[in-house]
Amino acid sequence: MVAMKPNPIRFGTDGWRAVVADDFTYANVRAVAQGVAAYLGNESRPVVVGHDSRYCAELFAREVARVLVANGLSVVLLDRVTPTPAVSWAITQLHAAGGIVVTASHNSAEFNGIKYKPDFGGSAPPEIVAEIERHTAVALEAGVTEMTYDEAVATGRLQTVDPLPDFFVQLGRMVDLDALRAHGLRVLHEAMYGAGAGLIARALRGGSTTVEELHGERNPGFGGMHPEPIDRYMPEAMERMQSGAFDLGIANDGDADRVGIIDETGRYINQLQVMALFAMYLLEQRGLRGDIVRSVTTSGMLDALGERFGVTVHEMPVGFKYIGTKMMETDAILGGEESGGYAFRGHIPERDGILSGLMMASMIVDYGLPLSGILAHLEDLVGPHSYDRHDIRFPREGYEERKEQIYARMQQNEPHHLAGSKVVRTRTDDGFKFYLDDGSWVLMRMSGTEPLMRVYAEATTKERVEQLISALENQSGVNARIAVGASE
Length: 488
Prior knowledge:
Blueprint: E1 16-19, H1 26-40, E2 47-51, H2 57-70, E3 75-78, H3 84-93, E4 98-102, E5 111-118, H4 126-142, H5 149-154, E6 158-161, H6 164-174, H7 177-182, E7 186-190, H8 199-204, E8 210-214, H9 235-241, E9 248-252, E10 259-262, E11 268-269, H10 271-285, E12 292-295, H11 301-309, E13 313-316, H12 320-330, E14 334-337, E15 341-344, H13 353-367, H14 371-382, E16 386-393, H15 399-412, E17 417-418, E18 421-427, E19 432-436, E20 441-446, E21 452-459, H16 462-476
Parallel strand pairs: 2-3, 2-4, 3-6, 7-8, 7-9, 12-13, 12-14
Antiparallel strand pairs: 1-5, 4-5, 9-10, 10-11, 14-15, 16-21, 17-18, 18-19, 19-20, 20-21
């Protein structure tokens, strides 16, 4: 019998994620906690520990807390299921050294994970991640310093806190909650069994506005649902919105740092449109000025808005560890990425799906138009844009090797033309993005958190988008038609 060597623990685009009882085990969670403790050293500020609604998430959070306390650190353990942005806000308000969130975000139910947030509440930059990974590897070999949970409590260095009251105060600073409550909006909230359950309703209760919630109970299996707020994963919400009984549909992922938006006609507003709407709203309606930070997977509509309103738009690699850092450097008014994560000046430099949903409601109130009308106004300003993304799933075993093979193939065979258009510029720091002479673009990149190849495109028509995606899939040598999870 050959002894199996444990897999190394690697943080992807935003945290470490793994399958529960396979690599995501109590022992590995303790090792990551030990890695964070070693990274923080003799830190006098507390460490915040929170968790989402996944299977045994609160028990994993307790494991983290007791290891941190055993290493001489003080811990603030959040006392309930908490959205990741609320954990991040608590870090800033408690003047903490950082925080650990037990969550696998939008991943399917068999996963759990850990996100580390530094003292500013955003995603950890690569240099911090590298240090935590290095210390975690040592812990896997040498073991961890630990004590029981009861012993940790007895030290006096472990306290529990409800983070939500302070979080709602901050939401009220970012949007006029009284105006939203009084407006009489009819909101459907698709909570996707996640950590955002109940929070949109709590924010908006007390006036004539009503909120109806779907899938708000705790269900670690997500009821068979994939907790990512995009149209194909929320058919019930899409159908309910098509009834005409609501003004706005808001959906959140498993840890509520992402948002999906449905307009009053039942039309899904894609993530690129949502970020462009936020940019237009902040610039035109609220009169703000400042830089905008977008990921390489987001829309050229933002560049058009930047030019129109005289603000700088920065295009960054995927991940809020890059976007949040640039936002802090430039005091940007908005940051966002294609996955449905958006951040706003005056809040944390990190995605917040709850605030994003409320910001969309505020947009409807302030423009005095239905969401479909606001989207039409955006198109008047920037012209028509269509977008799609194909997700091509691979087996977890051997994914890293396959990833290297695909990237090597692309490097050796970079195209000069795609789907009949000339490639005028190429970006290769996060996958392969090709900018074409007709103003469209297409991008292929391998996910850092799931065994997926993602292919994105934006053009003026849906037909052109599909042509570009097919052309780049063929260029990569991957047959999307046989891939599990590929977009239809």
